[in-house]
Amino acid sequence: MPTIYLIIALLLARSMTLPAPAVAQDKDNSQAQLAPPDVFVLVGVVRGELELISL
Amino acid sequence: MGKSANALEHVRVGQVAPREAYFQELALFRKANRLCYEHTRTGVPDPEPPLGQIRPVDVYAVVDAALSRIRSVKEIIGIPETVEPQPRDASKTPTDVFSSTMLANQQLNLLLDQQFAPSDVFEQVTLAVGLTSQLLARFPGATRIAPTPAYERGRRPADVYERLVRCFQRVRSIATVSQLDMGTLTRVHSDDPVTPSYVYNMATLVVSELTFVHALIPDASAPVGTYYPGRKLPSHVYQRVGILEAQLAELEKHVREHPGWLAPQERAR
């Protein structure tokens, strides 16, 4: 029985820890490349949303 | 919501750096947060200030936070339509971001039940006074806080705006003498009356430039935090901007005598 608990614990630990850094790193890399044109697009979305609210 | 369309600005800001855009986005976030609070009774703190030099990614994060608040409002008032992002135009600069954000700020202010008021401007000006006091601390013998000018009854937001524009020009002169790059300000004709929201945007711009200069002094003390000052009239704000204007005149005088004041060897003076 203790072996089963150990295997489950290892599997849980693996599922919880392994993918996270890779995803976070991808996100960090793509965000670090953001430039003023990307910010301009997002501000445009904000203005569009405000137009919808103000109607 | 049947609110009127946004108004036009009274100035055009050029040669904008990401830091100046960041502070305009912060103003946008605060207005979005207030709008969200008015509809949902939930508010969130300002985004964490970035460490070191402000980059486009930091500006993006604040816009994204503002957008999240605005979408919460949309959801609660039942607007299912979505906005498609426009195609990315690689020629857009921080100046374009800044100009577009100023319009968004006005648009957003008009949606608020409790629009940005003189007390909000007062808070920003108090922050500017604190930052300038820290800069003046570099010069022994300098008067860090100027005497409070007389209270002038009947001052309007336009008077405060003009005084803040003069403060911006003064900060820019200080930056030029100190060999720092700073945005430019050009007046443009506008038939719209100057509202506290416009004044708030201008105060935010002054704070952004002072924060930039303050950050160049490694051993400077952190500026004193501000708090809601209670209800204020434009005359109160005008009076407080008078303190700032006098401080900046004092700072410019010292900086002209010591243009290398931000260099490490000048620090011990």
Rg from alpha-carbon coordinates of chain A: 22 Å
Indicate the proportion of strand residues of chain B.
under 5%
Q: Specify the structural class of chain A.
A: mainly alpha
User: What is the total tally of β strands of chain A?
Assistant: 0
Largest sheet of chain A: none
Low-confidence blocks of residues of chain A: 12-25
Quaternary form: heterodimer
Indicate the overall shape of chain A: elongated
CA-CA gap between termini of chain A: 65 Å
Protein chain pair with the most extensive contact, residues per chain: A-B, 24 and 46 residues
| Approximate shape of chain B | globular
What does this entry look like structurally?
The complex is a heterodimer of chains A (55) and B (269). Chain A is elongated and about 65 Å long. In chain A, 89% of the residues lie in helices and 0% in strands. Chain A is built from 3 helices and no strands. Chain A has helices spanning 2-17, 19-32, 36-54. Helices cover 54% and strands 3% of the residues of chain B. Mean pLDDT of chain B is 90; it is low at 2-8. The interface between A and B is medium-sized, with 24 and 46 residues.
Q: Topology, please?
A:
The complex is a heterodimer of chains A (55) and B (269).
Chain A: H1 2-17, H2 19-32, H3 36-54
Chain B: E1 11-14, H1 18-40, H2 56-76, H3 94-111, H4 118-136, H5 157-177, E2 184-187, H6 196-215, H7 234-257
Antiparallel strand pairs in B: 1-2
Helix pairs in contact in B: 1-2, 1-3, 1-6, 4-6, 4-7, 5-6, 5-7
Key structural traits:
heterodimer, A: 55 residues, mainly alpha, 89% helix, elongated, B: 269 residues, two-stranded antiparallel ribbon, 7 helices, 3% strand
